[in-house]
Design a protein that fits this description.
The complex is a heterodimer. By secondary structure, chain A is α+β, with helices and mostly antiparallel strands. Chain A has 25 helices and 18 strands. Classes of the chains: A alpha+beta, B alpha+beta.
Chain lengths: ~700, ~300
């Protein structure tokens, strides 16, 4: 069966876009092939800086013929219906349709037959369409043309044919570029045109022309060579998946080399060395496998097998890295000459947000809240948390963070330690940004927790107070991440605090008029927190009906502590996994269903106390006394937030509930008995209510 | 030419030799070789031969050196890499030819960068100039890990779509020269390619200027006067644009654009003096952009901008 080979050869495609683009090319082309009835056995996509390519193996040479009987209107139907049918079936006159008969009478049937088109013809149609509408994150025009591509597109190779025969060029033209069977080798080492037949010789010839078309292969080569070179130096590679991805997109064929820088730069913090070498030069760093300390060597991935073995390339890169490290060292030395406390003044000149004031004003708010939080999170003394908050943003005005924004917090810690500031305070300066993302660590040291919470809560309260909430996919201030961070800190540290009280207190203390502080705004922020909590619980595979059942009896909006909500969901889940739990749920539902029907019929509620005098059967009495006992036991347990015991108490209702439904007819003939029994059913519903709203539980 | 003269003009030997080699190379490609524009500007792109000529349908090929003034980058001559005044070499080709990348590589070979020895890389770097209302896609070009040029396909200038698209190449001359001369400090560059008593370094030519201008830019420039001059340039630009506008034609697009260049440089000076706050900054940039857009619109109504000749 024939194979398709398609290569789009252009100027350098941004590294970060290549992997997605090769996948898009695969999806778009194969999707359209299948739509046209052309199925295949397999595909593979490729990308290098200069090309995107795709092979589709084992394709049909021709789409299968298409045959369909299309049922039309009845004979004698109005002309409009007939005309519509002719149009949709592609017939010229109704005479071309057949007449068939069914129970209702005669109707028209059109036989639609289409010859399957040859694959090459379909490909010639599909590829230009895909190219013209390709979903690049950013595309451009060039020269005098109108086509948009990520960078100028120079040539298109497109062949189709079986393994055993000479494949043919699939001919088409896009904005003056004619498809052909020509590719080009490495731009420096083998720039000439190369004639290609099919995938196999395309890969082989390009390999000879110093191009490795397979992205994963290039990555594997880089990793293997880098590790070997590191080992040869007695060192270990500091692996970096993001960087690996990027450099694999910067070379047609990787040539891995080791360079060296002056040992004196090792005095710099390792994160600074790594940021300098990684961000600016896209090189890997190496470390001593035993001590874990960085070495004064780096791994660079070049695009050239140079005739001098790479000596000039190494020297050039080392020179640039030396200059960069010299800059970093200069920053490191200059920055430490000014105390962080001194720097805090500079924050007065930096606007955080035009409605939320300067960084200095923000820092004061965070410090106040951190001090309020200190006793709750056991950060002692209070002033440590406030001090940490006041220093937390000072590194934003250092040279180093100006150059490497991703080192914010970390540099503050280094500079604080250099000043001999309390290590807990120094740690909090770094950790107050955490957790940054789902995989980031949650701070646990009390001072860090206080500042981390205060920072995030201030941001959230502030943006709610000026009515700049995230909408849809727009969340420019990363407020979702901040809210999730708050919840993770609270939950991981098991802080039994009401988030709502904190929010209210912070609004009252720090956001006076003209800020907005009405209750509905707080409700809205708390609901936002609650949504994040639901997402978080869902990610942990909690059942969302259980979350709803628990939130129904105590939500963040109402001021419930998030830790309680989570504990309840866990306990409820465990309870429902037991036999008692399952059966009690069945009993609850039965009671609720009967009540719903009868209350609807009688147009009244049965929520008042049943009368003990009217109990005529022992099962009634026993159920009633069990309910009273369970309620009391559950209430005692709940007052101690002992949710599991509360569940256990409610679980005791299972036997009496089962016995009740077994022996007692609710809809008794005597209306008084019936009424009393309905009231008793209502008590079952009410008894479960303090632990969860059972009516929300599904499944 | 004597042996000595020829030797001293090799791009590896002298700063001026490098400039001459680039000029000769681009002249061979049919570019008009212009001289620097006689105004202070932050980058070669501001030269009307780029900004304005990139607009409209008429083909255009030019190359020139442009002194670039970046008041904020001054370091009193103490930093080996940073200058408040440096040279850019600019080539603009409109429409961008299919082989522009090859031409660029050949130009590097011409100044002594052997591509079988050095690792040349095109690393994504999209360009945007908020003051010019301009943007383009392209790369920063790396030689052994060092950025030596900026390569841009203009998509928009002065708020107008570029059709056809111009290809712009900007070489950081000092950096390139440092690389090919193997020098670590810009002030050590050999300027004239001679040795010993006859040798003139970049420092001999510019060190004093860097010191003096750093003082002026950061400490001495009269900010009140500059604020006034900014306003003057802005008003003059608008005034010229208004009186030059003859409905379908514009008769003074170029003088108006000079005032836009002037306003932009004064803004840079004010910025270096630290008297423009973060919020004000945006509004100043927007004001210059408005001028640039209006000048672009005026240019499109001139012969150079491709407006049809008026009927007699």
């Amino acid at each position: 069966m024939p194979d398709l080979l398609l290569e789009l050869y252009s100027e350098e495609i941004p590294a970060r876009m290549q992997a997605v683009a090769q996948e898009n090319l695969r999806k778009l082309v194969t999707g359209k092939l299948v739509d046209a009835g052309l199925t295949y056995e397999g595909t593979k996509a490729f990308s290098t800086p200069r090309r995107l390519a795709l092979t589709v193996q084992g394709m049909l040479a021709r789409a299968p013929d298409f045959r369909e009987e299309k049922k039309g209107p009845r004979v004698g139907a109005p002309d409009g219906a007939i005309q519509g049918f002719l149009k949709s079936a592609g017939l010229k006159s109704i005479g071309e349709a057949k007449i068939q008969q069914d129970k209702k009478g005669d109707f028209y049937v059109a036989l639609i037959e289409r010859k399957g088109r040859p694959a090459a013809e379909v490909i010639a149609e599909i590829v230009p369409e895909v190219v013209r509408n390709f979903p690049w994150p950013k595309s451009m025009r060039w020269g005098a043309g109108t086509l948009a591509w990520v960078r100028p597109l120079h040539s298109i190779l497109c062949t189709f044919g079986p393994e055993t025969e000479e494949p043919e060029v699939v001919h088409f033209e896009i904005d003056g570029i004619k498809s052909g069977n020509i590719t080009f080798g490495h731009p420096m080492l083998a720039p000439g045109p190369i004639e290609v037949k099919r995938t196999g010789d395309w890969m082989e010839k390009l390999h000879k022309a110093r191009v490795v078309v397979d992205r994963d292969w290039r990555k594997a080569e880089i990793m293997a060579d880098a590790k070997n070179l590191a080992l040869a130096q007695g060192l270990e590679l500091v692996e970096d998946e993001g960087l690996l991805d990027e450099v694999a997109g910067l070379v047609e064929r990787p040539v891995v080399l080791v360079g060296e820088f002056d040992k004196t730069y090792l005095d710099l913090p390792p994160e600074v060395i790594r940021a300098t070498i990684r961000n600016n030069q896209k090189c890997f760093v190496l470390r001593d496998a035993k001590t874990g300390k960085l070495a004064n060597k780096f791994i660079l991935v070049s695009n050239l097998e140079a005739k001098d073995g790479g000596a000039a390339i190494k020297a050039g890169n080392a020179r640039v890295i030396r200059a960069r490290l010299a800059d970093a060292k200069f920053f490191w030395e200059q920055d430490r000459k000014i105390k962080l406390e001194e720097r805090a003044k500079k924050l007065e000149g930096i606007v955080f947000h035009k409605k939320l004031g300067t960084q200095a004003e923000r820092v004061e708010r965070i410090a106040r809240l951190a001090a309020e939080l200190a006793p709750i999170v056991k950060a002692d003394p209070k002033k440590k948390a406030a001090q940490a908050a006041r220093l937390a943003k000072t590194d934003l005005v250092t040279e180093m963070v100006g150059e490497f924004p991703e080192l914010q917090g970390l540099m503050g810690k280094y500079y604080a330690l250099a000043e001999k500031i309390d290590p807990e305070v120094a740690a909090a300066i770094e950790e107050h940004y955490k957790p940054q993302g789902p995989s980031d660590r949650v701070p646990t040291a009390p001072v860090s927790v206080a500042v981390a919470l205060a920072d995030k809560i201030d941001t959230l309260v502030g943006f709610w107070a000026i009515d700049e909430k995230p909408t849809g996919s727009k969340d420019p201030y990363a407020l979702r991440r901040a809210a999730l961070g708050v919840l993770r800190i609270i939950l991981d540290n098991r802080l039994p605090i009401s988030l709502r009280s904190l929010v209210e207190s912070h609004l009252e203390h720090s956001f006076h008029k003209p800020y907005l502080s009405e209750a509905s705004r707080i409700d809205n922020l708390m609901a936002f927190f609650e949504d994040r909590l639901k997402v978080q619980l869902r990610d942990q595979h909690a059942r969302h009906d259980l979350v709803d059942a628990v939130l129904e009896i105590g939500s963040l909006v109402e001021g419930e502590a998030a830790t309680l909500v989570v504990d309840r969901v866990t306990a409820l889940g465990k309870f429902l996994d037991t036999e008692d739990g399952k059966n009690l749920l069945v009993g609850f539902r039965r009671a609720a269903n009967i009540l719903r029907d009868e209350e609807k019929r009688d147009k009244r509620h049965y929520s008042d106390e049943p009368s003990e005098k009217l109990f005529s059967l022992p099962e009634e009495k026993s159920l009633f006394s069990s309910i009273q006992a369970a309620e009391q036991a559950a209430a005692t347990a709940l007052s101690k937030n002992d949710y599991e015991s509360a569940m256990a108490a409610i679980a005791k209702l299972r036997a009496p509930v089962d016995a009740f439904f077994d022996k007692v007819t609710v809809n008794a003939d005597d209306p008084k008995l019936r009424e009393n029994r309905l009231k008793l059913l209502d008590r079952i519903r009410a008894a479960t209510r303090p632990v969860a709203d059972f009516s929300k539980i599904g499944g | 030419m004597t042996q000595l003269a020829a030797e001293s003009l090799k791009p590896e030997r002298s700063f001026q030799g490098l400039i001459l080699a680039l000029q000769t190379f681009w002249a061979e490609q049919g570019c008009v070789i212009l001289q620097p524009y006689d105004m202070e500007m932050g980058a070669g792109t501001f030269h009307p031969a780029t900004t304005l000529r990139a607009l409209g349908p008429r083909p255009w090929k030019a190359a020139y050196v442009q002194p670039s003034r970046r008041p904020k980058d001054g370091r009193y001559g103490e930093n080996p890499n940073r200058l408040q005044h440096y040279y850019q070499f600019q080539a603009i080709l409109k429409p961008s030819p299919a082989d522009i990348q090859e031409l660029y590589l050949k130009s590097l070979a011409r100044i002594g960068i052997d591509q079988k020895l050095h690792d040349i890389r095109f690393v994504e770097d999209d360009w945007e100039s908020p003051t010019l209302g301009a943007s383009g896609l392209g790369w920063e070009c790396w030689c052994d890990g060092m950025e030596v040029s900026q390569f841009t396909y203009f998509q928009q200038v002065a708020g107008f779509e570029c059709t056809p698209v111009s290809g712009e190449l900007t070489y950081g001359l000092e950096r390139l020269a440092m690389y090919v001369q193997g020098v670590e400090n810009v002030f050590d560059l050999n300027f004239n390619g001679r040795e010993d008593a006859e040798k003139v370094t970049y420092g001999d030519v510019f060190l004093q200027a860097e010191q003096e201008y750093s003082r002026y830019n950061f400490e001495a420039a009269d900010t009140e006067m500059l604020f006034r001059h900014f306003k003057d340039a802005e008003e003059e630009c608008k005034r010229i644009l208004k009186i030059g506008d003859k409905d379908k034609r514009h008769e003074m697009a170029l003088p108006a654009y000079d005032q836009c260049i002037k306003a932009s440089h004064i803004f840079n000076l004010l910025d270096a003096r630290g008297v423009i706050s973060v919020t004000e900054r945006q509004s100043y940039i927007a004001r210059v952009r408005e001028l640039a857009k209006a000048c672009g619109a005026a240019w499109l109504k001139t012969a150079g901008g491709g407006a049809a000749a008026l009927k007699a």
